[in-house]
Design goal:
The protein is α+β, with helices and mostly antiparallel strands. The chain is 46% helix and 20% strand.
Length: 457
C-alpha cells in the first residue's frame, strides 16, 4: 500500500491511498464466502458456490463493493499511522479509481490534530491575584452554620422577621384559576432564604400568625414560567430560631474538642486547607494560561463548532432544570447575548488548545499510565457523579469512553509536571507551595534529595 498526504489547512489533511489488488484478495475471498452462504444456486450446496458462478449470478461489482467496504477502514487507519496523523472527526472517503485485478485508489479528507512548536514549559512564572486568606468573617460564618445545625425553634407571638421560620399556606392563581403545582399547605419556610417565589420574603416580613396577604409575582418554573400570577399567602405560625452559645459545652456536644477555642482553631485550619486547594487550582489555571499565551495552536473549525454547540446546550438544559430563562440568566450576569457568546467561544477555544498542548507535553515526556491510576480516576469520577462505581465503570467500558478517561489522566499528569517546576506567586508576592501540597490541602514534607554517589576509585 502507498499513501500520500496533502495539507489542506493546518487542521485538515487529504490522504490519497493506493492499494494493490493483492492486498484486497483476503477481503474478496471473505466476500465470496459470505455471499455463497446467502444465495441458493441449483446444483450447488449453500456456501459451496464457486466464485465464477457468483460473478455470473450476483455480479462481480457486488463482490468488489463488499470487499472494498471491508478493507477501506483498515487501509485508512494504516495510512493515518504511516503519515503520523491523528484524526479528530470522521473522514470523507471517496473511491477515485478501481481497476479490477489491478489497483484500488481512494482519498480521505479529515480534520487532524494540528502540529505546532511546544513552548518552553520548564520554570514557568505566573501570578494569582485573588485573595485566598482565611478571615475572621469566614470562621464566624462556619461557626454560625454549625450552631444552626443544633438550633431549636420556639413559637413566638410577634410579627415575623428575617431569619424566623414560618408555617404558611400558599396558593398562586392566574385569571382566578389555581396554577397546577403552585398550591401548598402547612409548609415550613425560613424568611429571607429566597429561591422560592419572588416577593415572598418581602411579603412575610411583618406578618403574624393568622395574617393573610396577596401579591403579584412571576413563576420561575413550570409551564407558566415568567408569567405574572397572584400569590396568596397565609401565616399559621411564627417560630424564632434559638442558637446555642459558642462555648466549651457546645464544643463538647458538637465536636470532638473540649473547648470553643479548639473548635474555632479547627474550623480555621479546615478553611485554610480548602483555601489552599482553591489557590492551587487557580495557580494551575494561571500556569496553563501562561503556556497558552506562549504558543499559537490552529484549531479545527468543526471541532470548535461542535464543542460550542454542546456547551451551549448544556447551559440551556441547566437553566431549564432550574426554571430560569436565558434572558433572566444574562440579566443576573450583567451580560448581553453577544458578550455571552464571545465569552463561551473564548473558553471553548482555550479548552481545546489546552488539550492539544497537554497531549504534546505528555507525548514528549513519554508519560505512562498505571492500571491503578485508571481505576482511581474512574472511582473518583463515579463518586463525583453520585453513581455506583461498578455501574459507572461498566458504562464507560460499554460505550468506549475509557480512551477519554486515559486522555484526561495523561493531560492531568502533563499539567502537574509543568506546575511542579513552575513558580507561582500570590497577590503579596509570596511563592505558593504546590509541589508538596497533598490532596487534603495539607503541606507534606519535601522529598529528601538523593545523595550523589562519590567514585572513590
Amino acid at each position: 500500500m502507498k499513501s500520500a498526504v496533502e495539507t489542506l489547512s493546518p487542521t485538515r489533511a487529504k490522504l490519497t491511498v493506493e492499494v494493490p489488488f493483492e492486498e484486497l484478495k483476503p477481503s474478496l475471498d471473505a466476500a465470496y464466502q459470505q455471499i455463497a452462504k446467502q444465495i441458493n444456486i441449483p446444483g450447488f450446496r449453500r456456501g459451496k458456490v464457486p466464485p465464477m458462478v457468483i460473478d455470473r449470478q450476483v455480479g462481480r461489482g457486488a463482490v468488489l463493493d463488499q470487499a472494498i467496504n471491508e478493507v477501506l477502514p483498515q487501509k485508512y487507519v494504516e495510512a493515518l499511522q504511516a503519515n503520523d496523523l491523528v484524526p479528530l472527526a470522521q473522514p470523507e472517503i471517496e473511491v477515485t479509481k478501481l481497476e479490477d485485478n489491478e489497483t484500488l485508489e481512494f482519498t480521505a479528507e479529515v480534520d487532524v490534530k494540528p502540529t505546532f512548536d511546544l513552548p518552553d514549559y520548564s520554570g514557568v512564572e505566573a501570578e494569582v491575584t485573588d485573595e485566598f486568606a482565611v478571615t475572621d468573617g469566614d470562621v464566624d460564618e462556619q461557626a454560625q452554620a454549625l450552631r444552626e445545625r443544633f438550633a431549636t425553634l420556639l413559637d413566638v407571638e410577634r410579627p415575623a422577621a428575617d431569619g424566623d421560620f414560618v408555617t404558611i399556606d400558599l396558593k398562586a392563581t392566574q385569571d382566578g384559576e389555581v396554577v397546577e403545582g403552585a398550591e401548598v399547605a402547612g409548609m415550613s419556610y425560613q424568611v429571607g432564604r429566597g429561591g422560592m417565589i419572588d416577593g415572598l420574603d418581602e411579603a412575610l416580613v411583618g406578618m403574624s400568625a393568622g395574617d393573610e396577604k396577596t401579591f403579584t409575582s412571576q413563576l420561575v418554573g413550570g409551564d407558566l414560567v415568567g408569567e405574572s400570577v397572584e400569590v396568596a399567602v397565609a401565616v399559621t405560625g411564627v417560630q424564632e430560631q434559638q442558637l446555642p452559645d459558642l462555648d466549651d459545652e457546645f464544643a463538647q456536644m458538637a465536636s470532638e474538642f473540649d473547648t470553643a477555642d479548639e473548635l474555632t482553631a479547627d474550623l480555621r485550619e479546615r478553611l485554610g486547607r480548602g483555601k489552599r486547594l482553591e489557590q492551587a487550582a487557580a495557580a494551575r489555571d494561571a500556569v496553563l494560561e501562561k503556556l497558552l499565551e506562549a504558543v499559537s495552536i490552529p484549531l479545527p473549525d468543526a471541532v470548535v463548532t461542535d464543542e460550542l454547540n454542546a456547551r451551549r446546550q448544556s447551559v440551556e438544559q441547566q437553566l431549564a432544570y432550574s426554571g430560569m430563562t436565558m434572558e433572566a440568566y444574562l440579566e443576573d450576569e450583567g451580560q448581553t447575548q453577544e458578550e455571552f457568546e464571545a465569552e463561551l467561544e473564548r473558553r471553548v477555544r482555550d479548552a481545546i488548545a489546552a488539550q492539544f498542548l497537554l497531549d504534546e507535553i505528555a507525548k514528549k515526556e513519554e508519560l505512562g499510565l498505571e492500571q491503578s491510576e485508571l481505576q482511581e480516576h474512574l472511582m473518583r469520577r463515579a463518586q463525583q457523579s453520585g453513581e455506583d462505581p461498578q455501574a459507572f465503570v461498566n458504562h464507560m467500558v460499554e460505550h468506549n469512553h475509557i480512551p477519554e478517561m486515559v486522555q484526561e489522566i495523561m493531560r492531568g499528569k502533563a499539567l502537574a509536571l509543568v506546575v511542579e517546576s513552575a513558580t507561582v506567586k500570590d497577590a503579596q508576592g509570596s511563592v505558593i507551595e504546590l509541589k508538596n501540597l497533598r490532596p487534603d490541602g495539607t503541606i507534606g514534607e519535601p522529598e529528601p534529595e538523593s545523595e550523589e554517589t562519590v567514585d572513590e576509585s
